[in-house]
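Sharing a chain and its predicted structure for anyone who wants a worked example. Both blocks are below, sequence first, C-alpha cells second.
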Amino acid sequence: MLTRVCEQQDELAAEAGSSLVADPFLFSLALDGSQPMPPDHLTKRVAILKEHLGIAQKSAETIARETKRSGCSASRRRPAQRGAAVPSRSGA
C-alpha cells in the first residue's frame, strides 16, 4: 500500500509538471512532498464524511454498537502484517 502511495505521489507531481523533493513526506498535500500534511487535516476530512453519512452527532460508542448489530465486525478484517518493510524512495 505504501509503495502505491509513493507511486501516486510521483504521478501527481509529474502531471503537475513538478518533481518531488529529495526526501518527500509520505503524507503531504504539497505536490512536491516538501511539507507534511497538517495534523488536523484527517480530523476535518472525517468530520465531513460523518456529516455526509448522517452520523456527525453520534458518539464513537453508538457507532460501534450499531456496527456490531449490523454484523460488520472488525474481527472479519484481515490481520495487519507486522514487520513489513517500508518501501525505499531511492528505487522510484
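Comments welcome. The chain has two domains: 1-37, 38-74.
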